[in-house]
Amino acid sequence: MLRMSLFCLAILLCTACSAVSEDTAVSEPPPVGSQDTPAAEPQPSDATPEATTYGPKDFEAHGWTIVCQAVTFNDHTFTSAPDQLEKLGIKEVMAYRGQIVGGGFDEKFEFTTMSQEARDYVKQLTAEKGITIRHYGVVNAKTPEDWRKLFEFAQELGIQAIVSEPEYDELEMVDALAQEFDIRVGIHNHPLPTKYWHPDIVIHHIKDLSDHMGISGDTGNWARSGLDPLECIKKLEPLDGRIVEIQIKDMTHGYNVPLGTGQSDVAAMLRELKSQNYQGPFVIEYFTKRDTKLNEIRESLDHLYRVAAWIE
């Protein structure tokens, strides 16, 4: 009887130690590539080719494109961005106002101060490298005059959309400029406590404006605000084509990780966007300065292409 009691006690102690060990492990941020509650992998349909046959064309077939936010390479100048993008097979970039232009120009990519010489240099550089500056942001202006300068700047550089967070009482003015210059504006969601943190807020403020006014949805910032990114994307359906861009991110314990390795259901988000007939850019944005940055981006692109091949 005594042996049986000691045996049961030993089992209970082992179970308790195991539970404590699991709790301790969860309390620390995992390394890049580890998974806490990983999203389910997309499953191919009967008509889907083998997994080895996916690539950028599968992604582009849905009307999607990849844009890289230049802040990803903010530890270098904008001049170096095209060479970095070439390594990734990306042809479109989202310019960042805080980045140094480079190429002999020690000034920032700032619409209010960037010299005409620097602008001409950037236009020549991107033309030679085959790179398109598709979007610019996140950027705001302080006065009506500066808002006009912002749109003139975007028009000169061939920028298709400005990503911004205008004050509520500026939205009609910004909409008028967007229509005048035929440049779209994507309202961006930074995390709480910023004014556009929730998709319902964005929808409320732009629903009566023109189609030039849309949303720039950052799935990572929704997650940081305690929201479910998939549910946020579902809320965008009433906008009917007014998604300017999706900044697609995967998260684990608040940290950005390569797509498909974290807690976000990236495959479900892409399927939902497909169901809404979204055709536009997915923005890749990395703030990390890790030496593995390029490989992590490649891993993210690989996941996007693989999911796209499995979506009908």
Automatic annotation (TrEMBL):
UniProt keyword Hydrolase present: no
Residues annotated as signal peptide: 1-19
Source domain of life: Bacteria
MF terms in GO: isomerase activity
Matching InterPro entries: IolE/XylAMocC-like, Xyl_isomerase-like_sf, Xyl_isomerase-like_TIM-brl
One Pfam entry name: AP_endonuc_2
Region (Disordered): 24-54
Sequence ranges assigned to domain Xylose isomerase-like TIM barrel in this UniProt record: 110-306
Keyword vocabulary terms for this entry: Isomerase, Signal
Protein name (database record): Sugar phosphate isomerase/epimerase
Organism: Algisphaera agarilytica
